[in-house]
Amino acid sequence: MTAGQKMTTGDNKPNIISIAGRSGSGKTTFLEKVISYLKKRGYRLGIIKHAHCGVDIDKKGKDSWRHKNAGAAATLVISPGLISMVKDYEAPDSFNRKYNSDGSKADTINKKSCQNRQDAIENSHELIEKESDIVQNESAIIEGVKHYLCDMDIIIVEGFKYASLPKFEIFRVDAGHDIPLFLDDRNLVAFITDSDYQTGCPIFGLDDAEAVADLIEKRYILTS
């Protein structure tokens, strides 16, 4: 089996995992590296990010922008009452039609074709903004939005640390926190740290993003 080729189990729905950890632990930085490794192997990654103070979608430097810039095929940001998504889109042929300097189509011109062009531009990012009345339970929230990313090879969540998902916890000593959050959590599947804490699951260093990508590929992509 080659990179980018999945072993399917029937329904072919993407698995969902969580990159978790305390504030300042370096979750986004580490996730950027993991995204890059998996993107190079031909996988489509959907990232779900929790924003506590509203959505500033696709702005340079923001976590969602960093996810997308690292190679994610889609980033979905959830804040109270709002869902926003930026997603790769294969534009139809009409999107690339030639236009004259005055904006008219080079061959023929009609209002419908111009509207189709505008629709293609808007859809090229598939920016979705909608009011949401999903109950404020983290697992329920993820369950309620995962269908937006059903065409991905895997969905990685950052920020919903209490959702009942397989967790990859990141704990950095100089982040200013005394202890990790999830050493005794039954959902913890990997611990990524520069500390001396021990746990029963695999432990990786903060520079081991490629090895973590290997684990994600083997356990959660090739078997989805």
Strand-helix topology:
Layout: E1 15-20, H1 27-40, E2 45-50, H2 63-70, E3 74-79, E4 82-87, H3 111-123, E5 130-131, H4 138-145, E6 154-158, E7 167-171, E8 188-193, E9 203-204, H5 209-221
Parallel strand pairs: 1-6, 1-7, 2-3, 2-6, 7-8, 8-9
Antiparallel strand pairs: 3-4, 4-5
Can you describe this structure?
By secondary structure, this protein is of the alpha/beta class. Helix content is 25%, strand content 20%. A nine-stranded mixed beta sheet has the order 5-4-3-2-6-1-7-8-9, with helices on one face. Strand 2 (45-50), helix 2 (63-70) and strand 3 form a beta-alpha-beta unit.
Helicity level: 25-40%
* Total number of helices: 5
For the CA atoms, what is the radius of gyration?
20 Å
**Biggest sheet character:** 9 strands, mixed
Strand arrangement within the widest β-sheet reads 5-4-3-2-6-1-7-8-9
State the main characteristics.
224 residues, alpha/beta, nine-stranded mixed sheet, 5 helices, 9 strands
Characterize this entry briefly.
The chain has 224 residues and is an alpha/beta fold.
